[in-house]
From TrEMBL:
Protein name from the UniProt record: histidine kinase
Keyword terms: Kinase, Transferase, Two-component regulatory system
Reactions the enzyme catalyzes: ATP + protein L-histidine = ADP + protein N-phospho-L-histidine
One Gene Ontology term of the molecular function aspect: protein histidine kinase activity
Length: 472
């Protein structure tokens, strides 16, 4: 007895995908395909020749796309009529490959149609629509080829510009401090001969060594004096040194004030056995001022090089160059790394407010991709506030049941309803021609969607918020 038919037209007729087709058209499709039950597992692999077009009748299909060394889930469907496989069969190109990897999550019934049959059917039955699809496909490929590398280059240039700008200040400080330190050490070698060490008794010499150690200890520690307090202290020290007829009194006063040494310290120095004569006070003060200056320069070098190391660490955090593609991370660390990379755009007119929920759990995610999201959102906020008027950039994190919310808020003029409705559309931008591609927020939405989260905007004049919700 003959087996069941390879394809049943009546089963296809009820699917939304084939609405409006005639019996003859359905029969033509059935003639080039079959209905069959496929086991759970991979149906087709991205990059392989696109041989078949699949239409779901019963079961579930999951689509993923390759990104670097991993597959990212992008779509899952169980509705009859959902389709995958040879999306671009209308091109009738033998080199067309599968654009996604399709996996059946359970045994599923599918209509499997030969790609060449589908392509021939489309070009013969719907010639105008096929021409439009071919044009759109080639145009999309051309856009990706031109804009893809450009956008990546723009991001790299922005990150490099920010990093070099931030590294330049501490690097210049380290060079300046090292040069000053060399001068100080040379000066100390000459001033050592001016000390009355040769004529000092052992007790006085010991007191000088102890004073030098204590001055170095105080100067090497950070102090919390404000600029006004340092100015007042410098004036008091200058008056004291003047009264005691110390040469270069005001020069030494500035050094001691910067080191946090006050008038009580001057009294302690003058009362030490190494300063038992008026003539011995000036060389001792010079020696101790050099000691304090040397410690201050060493501290400046340490702070500058530490800042450079911190910036490099933040750059690694931002790019995730030394991390696995997926990780469980502190979202606040990602936000801070992104802020560090955009610090060159945070002028004195921008106030940054961090409203972080300290109780948030670590977030499972693709950190490098989320840093792209924060970069686009922060850049948009800064663009909205402009380069002149004072503005506030607020980063807020909260937990909402099983999701983590990140809000990037600005005090710019806001968006109208028609702009708000299109803000996530590809190639839509409110910037002048040539200043934006309109792809930043589209990329951000796609990344958040890949994390099974959501991204939306709320805006009123003076309060615009881009809100990201991610599953914990």
């Amino acid at each position: 007895m003959p087996g069941p038919p390879a394809c049943d037209v009546t089963e296809l007729r009820d699917l939304f995908l084939f609405e409006g087709l005639t019996d003859a058209q359905l029969a033509a499709l059935c003639g080039g395909g079959r209905i069959a039950t496929f086991p759970a597992g991979e149906l087709c692999r991205e990059g392989e020749p696109a041989e078949y077009f699949y239409v779901l009748l019963d079961g579930e299909i999951a689509l993923s796309k390759r990104s670097g060394a991993r597959d990212i889930d992008i779509w899952r469907a169980s509705a009859p009529g959902s389709y995958c496989g040879a999306w671009s069969a209308f091109l009738l190109d033998e080199e067309t490959t599968y654009e996604n990897t399709a996996t059946l999550t359970r045994p599923s019934r599918l209509f499997e149609l030969d790609a060449t049959t589908l392509g021939t059917f489309l070009t013969s039955q719907f010639p105008m629509a096929t021409h439009l699809l071919v044009g759109h496909s080639h145009g999309r490929f051309h856009q990706r080829r031109i804009l893809g590398p450009h956008d990546r280059l723009v991001q790299l240039v922005q990150m490099t510009a920010g990093l070099t700008h931030e590294l330049n200040n501490p690097a210049a400080a380290a060079v300046r401090a090292a040069s000053g330190l060399r001068t100080q050490i040379a000066g100390m070698r000459h001033r050592r001969a001016q000390l009355p060490a040769a004529t000092l008794p052992p007790e006085a010499m010991a007191s000088l060594v102890e004073l030098q150690d204590r001055v170095a200890e105080v100067a090497g520690k950070p102090n919390d004096l404000t600029s006004v307090q340092k100015a007042d202290l410098e004036e008091a020290l200058g008056d004291w040194l003047d009264r005691h007829k110390v040469a270069d009194a005001w020069q030494h006063a500035a050094t001691f004030a910067e080191a946090g040494l006050d008038v009580d310290w001057m009294e302690r120095i003058s009362a030490a056995p190494c300063c038992n004569t008026p003539a011995s006070l000036t060389p001792v003060i010079r020696w101790l001022a050099c000691t304090a200056e040397t410690e201050l320069l060493l501290t400046e070098i340490t702070d500058a090089t530490t800042r450079i190391s911190t910036l490099v660490d933040q750059a690694k955090q931002f790019t995730q160059l030394d991390r696995a593609p997926s990780d469980v991370v502190d979202v606040h660390g990602l936000l801070e790394a992104t802020l560090a990379m955009r610090a060159h755009r945070l002028g004195p007119h921008i106030t940054v407010v961090r409203d972080y929920d300290a109780g948030l759990p670590p977030l499972p995610c693709y950190p490098a991709e989320l840093n792209q999201v924060w970069t686009h959102l922060i850049d948009n906020a800064l663009d909205a506030m402009g380069d002149t008027a004072a503005g506030t950039l607020t980063l807020r994190t909260t937990r909402d049941r099983d999701t983590l919310r990140v809000e990037v808020c600005d005090t710019g003029p806001g968006m109208t309803d028609d702009v708000l409705a299109r803000i996530f559309d590809p190639f839509f931008t409110t910037k002048p021609f040539g200043e934006g591609t309109g792809l930043g927020l589209d990329v951000a939405v796609r990344i958040v969607d890949n994390h099974r989260g959501s991204l939306w905007a709320e805006s009123t004049p003076g309060d615009t918020r881009f809100i990201t919700s991610l599953p914990i």
